[in-house]
Amino acid sequence: MRRAGQRVLLLLLLPLLLLSFAGREAAAAGQGTGRIVMDNQELALPQGISLENVNGSVMIPIRVVVENLGFEVLWEQKTKKVTVQQDGKTVQLAVGSKTAEADGVTLSLNAAPKQNGGTVLVPIRFVSEQFGLKVGWDNSDKTVYLSGGQTSGSAPSVDPLPAATAAPQPAATPQPAASPTAAPSPTAVTGQDDDIAGGVNGPASTPVPGSAGNVATTPQVLGAVFSENRLIVAAAGGAKPAVSRLSSPDRIIVDFAGASFAPDFVGSLPSIAPNGTPQGKLDVTGYPLVTEVRYALFSTSPSTVRFVIQTVGSQPYQLSTDSSTGLVTIDLNTASSGGTPAAGTGSSGKPVVVLDAGHGGKQPGAVSPNGKLEKDVNFAVANKVGALLAQDGKVEVVYTRTADQTLGLQDRVNIAEAAKANLFISFHGNSLDVTYPNRDKVNGSETYYSRSESLPLAQILHKHLVAGTGFKDNGVRSKSLHVTRETSMPAVLLEVGYLTNPGNETAMFTETLQNNLAREIVAGIYEYLGL
Known about the structure:
Helix content is about 20%, strand content about 30%. It has about 525 residues and is an alpha+beta fold. The strands form 6 sheets. It has a 6-stranded mixed sheet with strand order 14-24-25-16-15-19, with helices on one face. Strands 17-18-23-22-21-20 form a 6-stranded antiparallel sheet, with no helix packed on it. Strands 27-26-28-31-29-30 form a 6-stranded mixed sheet, with helices on both faces. Helix 5 (about 375-390) crosses helix 10 (about 510-530) and helix 7 (about 455-470) runs antiparallel to helix 10 (about 510-530). The protein starts with a helix and ends with a helix. Mean pLDDT is about 75; it is low at about 1-30, about 150-195, about 195-215 and about 335-345.
């Protein structure tokens, strides 16, 4: 039972890891045939073909992509161009060229695709990540790991390369089942640079572990990841966290006294300290209020594993532990975690939701090639959402504008603040400048937030935004926008679609899409508020 429990623990943690390559580690790929493992299944390489390293990029045969990742791949013999397609997304690469195109956008490659006899080798990390797969490299046995794929059972012919029947689906990210407890409020003290002993080297690549190994009988830290504004640590053998604060700069310190790193410790961007123990930093890209998260063996007597979350200013947090899995979570989303809103302050005592139709009046916003105005679709969607909310009567609705009027950004913020709103949602349509290459091919829905407390709202509403539009999922993004930065309540800006994309534009101005989107946004609001 203990061995099974530990396997479950690792299965919960590993899909969260943000895996990356570095040239120093990838260079070892050329020293042997190598292996490719996707979703725990090893893929067969063509006979006589080995993984290759070119300028720090691991290259694999394109046929492996065809057979196992479920992509539609086309090979043009005359131009030596490879086209990879899946769910409306297109990536084009050419043998010998260090540039690629993703949906018409030109991107740079560390290494150009190359032809080896009758086999074309492509940068696996670039192709896979363009289609939503996580990629990792284990230098110890020269193995590429992929997660989030779906094996296809179709067999390709020789030429041309055929389309596979199955398309890959993004790997689900499990959330740890935790019982939150209020975090202690230690006295802040002025810290020194010795909160991590021995210092931290620069980023290196992330090894991907194999089996769960032996059951821990002493306190151990098995792995860690920073995801969704949370530090999640997998511990075993009775390892317990102690949390404190330091200032100058502001840091949250998480110590596991009496614990050591497991032999196969899993962390993002690891390196090795002079004493042979892991140290490194976790990837905090997309979290503007977190400067870095680093870890190391802070002390050997007693052995103490330390994690340091360095923040911009003093950030609140919540500590939770799950004894069944051993997962320890430091959650920085405390302002709105748990989905419990602040008490409504409207005249009805209900939660107050501000709906902001972007632009208006003398500010048309984006103008499509067909002359359609962004301000009109923004206004239509906001009003449809508001009408459904008013019909249900669960929340109080406040509009920033109720007509085609000009309104400044700070005016919109002031309206939300005066209403003492619980939520602020701004509706927009996207566009690209006329000089942008292939701008008519860029499409999809995306959600923006500026402050960490808005991230949970952004994640929930983005899920419903994509469901409502049916457009390509461009993800949740952090950006310093006035209306989402200057408001004090959770606030998001929804970019419904691109007016410069013919398909998006046509759909955005239909009653069908607007009504579907309105229903989804209302469902997202209720989900967030717990109504």
